[in-house]
Design brief:
Strand content: 15-25%
Number of domains: 2
Order of helices and strands: HHEHEEHEHHHHEHHEHEHEHEEHHHEE
CATH topology of the largest domain: Rossmann fold
Shape: globular
Radius of gyration: 22 Å
Distance between the termini: 15 Å
Oligomer: single chain
Length: 423
């Protein structure tokens, strides 16, 4: 590459990181929570319950607005996602994406706090992605160990979030509308950050306070679809139907992936790129998505369609990974590594993909970024990309060549953002 080309690529990488950083800042929940609660009013007691990866920031914002009107409350978030004490609220950290003992203890603590509420009282329920694992109490007859085994198999199977949460709802005492039943007659006022494509309210954090549209038959079909081995007691519990009608709920979505993509388009335009929001509902396998995005890059570079450089193709959604190997990685890492081979001969092309929550799977990375030099640098390390992709070992490869994106926990969670940036 000529010096000028190297400078262009360096600027392109810098712009990609800038856009992602500014987008995440633009969808932090603080302002959205404050706006939703500005005219909030209730006569009785307010108990705050915040669950998910964004729980701490959402609770902090709510406490700032409502102050001593919140008489009691609890925050349940992922390990290392708390940012300190919040006056008057208990802070718990627990397992994600698999529930652990802290998940159960924190949920039991929550249920104690909402006992004996009256019809004049209210649970301010702040919900974000990750709540499915963090807010958990198995139905009678199921142990935590049994629950973790089936959840782990589901997450490795390639099942999408709606399918996974369908199973979760039918095995839990607090999901699929059951939390609302436990709180009745008090009102549950939910503010939700959506990490579910299409913003299905009964799927966000597995819908603890929303009527469940899924059925026991559908849950059993998912078990069959992914050839999951389950015990007889789990099969019996899956046949117990979830609530289909709730009278004590009010729900409002305050952030989602569409907002993320719209903001990304605005920021990209400010940086001089013509934006195109290709989709906000990407939900295929991560490896396939990476190849497809690389093919779009080739189309633009070769034929200037569907747009001409400088441009930004913006994609929102949440891919899945069918885990067949024993490597380390996540869906965004796997997506960009898959894209790397397809753009290795394309100058001034960058693909960046991140989870807006700042971490994915069991790694400390939000995602990764690749360009035309990535594939060559990987080959110089003696690494076979296809072999490592089959082993689901994207973290190792991207780390080896310095292409991981590490933001740390961001305090929000609204799906994944992928940007194809071309100059």
């Amino acid at each position: 590459m000529l010096r000028n080309d190297k400078d262009k690529l360096k600027l392109l990488r810098s712009d990609a990181l800038y856009i992602v950083q500014k987008v995440i800042e633009s969808v932090l929940p603080d302002k959205a929570v404050e706006a939703a609660l500005r005219d909030f009013h209730t006569e009785g007691k307010i108990v705050l319950v915040a669950i998910g990866k964004a729980a701490w920031r959402m609770a902090f914002a709510a406490k700032k607005i409502l102050g001593i009107r919140i008489e009691d409350g609890i925050v349940i978030t992922k390990y290392d996602h708390s940012q300190g004490d919040i006056e008057g609220l208990e802070i718990w950290e627990a397992g994600h994406p698999i529930p652990d003992e802290n998940s159960i203890k924190a949920t039991n603590c929550t249920l104690e706090k909402v006992k004996n509420l009256t019809e004049n009282d209210m649970v301010l329920f702040l919900v974000s992605g990750g709540g499915s694992a963090l807010f958990e109490k198995p139905l009678p007859g199921i142990s935590l160990k049994e629950l973790t085994v089936i959840y782990d198999r589901l997450l490795r199977s390639g099942a999408n979030i709606v399918e996974t949460n369908t199973i979760r709802k039918h095995l839990s005492s607090v999901k699929g509308g059951r939390f609302s039943r436990l709180v009745h007659p008090a009102i549950v006022y939910t503010l939700a950050l959506s990490d579910v494509l299409g913003d299905h309210l009964d799927a966000i954090a597995s819908g603890p306070a929303y009527p469940d549209s899924s059925t026991s038959d559908q849950a059993l079909e998912i078990i069959k679809k992914y050839d999951l081995s389950i015990t007889g007691n789990i099969r019996d519990v899956l046949r117990i139907e979830t609530p289909k009608n709730l009278v004590n709920i009010e729900t409002k979505i305050i952030g989602n992936i569409k907002q993320v993509c719209n903001n990304a388009a605005l920021i990209a335009r400010e940086k001089g790129y013509t934006p195109l929001i290709l989709t906000t509902t990407l939900d295929c396998e991560a490896k396939h998505a990476g190849k497809f995005i690389a093919s779009i890059a080739r189309e633009i570079k070769s034929f200037k369609t569907p747009m001409k450089p400088p441009c930004a193709v913006i994609i929102g959604g949440e891919t899945v990974v069918n885990v067949q190997g024993d490597g380390t990685g996540g869906r965004n890492q796997e997506l960009v590594l898959s894209a790397a081979s397809g753009i290795c001969d394309l100058e001034n092309v960058v693909v960046i993909s991140v989870g807006t929550d700042g971490t994915e799977a069991s790694t400390d990375a939000a995602g990764g970024m690749v360009d035309c030099t990535t594939c060559k640098r990987i080959q110089k390390e003696g690494i076979d990309i296809n072999k490592e992709l089959k082993n689901n070992n994207s973290y190792y490869v991207l780390d080896k060549v310095g292409n991981l994106i590490k933001t740390g926990p961001t305090g929000t969670n609204v799906n994944d953002l992928t940007i194809l940036l071309i100059n």
